[in-house]
Amino acid sequence: KYQSLSNMKNKYLITSILLFLSLVSAWGQGTSIIDIDLSNDSYKGGITIDENNREYYIHGTYDIENQGVPTQETGYGTTAQNKAKAVIMVARGIQVKITLDKVNTKNFPEDAPYCALYADEAQRVELILVGDNSLAGGHDLPAICAPTGDGTELIIKGKGKLTAKGGIEAAGIGDISVDHQDLTVIPVVVNQRCDGSKRVKRKNLYTV
Q1: Which element (helix H / strand E) includes 30?
Q2: HEC profile for 113-140?
Q3: Of the residues 30, 49, 189, 198, which has the maximum number of CB atoms within 10 A of its CB?
Q4: Whole-structure pTM value
Q5: Is the dihedral of CA 173, 91, 140, 105 positive or negative?
Q6: How many CB atoms are closer than 10 A to CB 152?
Q7: pLDDT 10s digits, 2-52
Q8: DSSP letter string, 133-178
Q9: What is the mean pLDDT of residues 113-138?
C-alpha cells in the first residue's frame, strides 16, 4: 500500500515537472528573438517573416552574386518576367518588430523587379536601425515597400542609419500602384509613426 502511494506521488511529481518544463519552453519560444544572417547560405533566395508579434534581428549583406536572386514573391507583377521578388518578405496582416543591424543589399540590377524589404500587406512594421544600413530596389520598385492602407504603420527608429534607394522610376521608401503611375514615399520621421495611407511626393534616394 505504502509503495503504491509512493509510486503515485513520484508519477505526480514527474508529471508536474514535465508540465512546468513544457510551459517554460513554450514561453521561451514566444519571447525569443529570431536571429537571421542574410549572408548565410541558409537564406539564399531571401526570407519570409510570417510570425505575428515577434521580434527579428537581421544582419549581414545579401549579395545577389553569392546568394542568388530573391525568390520571395510579392504582390507586384502579373507575368514571370515582371513578377517582383523580395529579399525580406513580411507576410500579410502581421505586426512585427525588425532590427536591421548593418544590413546591405549588393549587386541588385536596376532594371530587374527586386526589392530589399516588402511589407505592403503587413499591418504594422517597426524597424530599429543599428549601424549603417543600405537597401536597394530594382526597376519600378522601392527599396522598402511600406505597408499601405488605412490603419497600417511603418515606424523607423534607432541610432543607426538607413539609406534606401529605389529602382528606376521608384521611390526609396513607398509603394507603387498597378498602373505604375502613382509612385509615393511614406513620410518617415525617426522615432515617429507614419500612417501608411498617406501619400506625398516621391523621392528616389531616401536617407534616415
Answers
A1: helix 2-31
A2: CEEEEECCCCCEEEEEEECEEEEEECCC
A3: 49
A4: 0.73
A5: positive
A6: 22
A7: 455 455 555 554 555 555 444 444 444 446 899 999 999 999 999 999 999
A8: EEEEB-TT--SEE---STT-EEEEEESSEEEEE--TT--SEEE--T
A9: 92
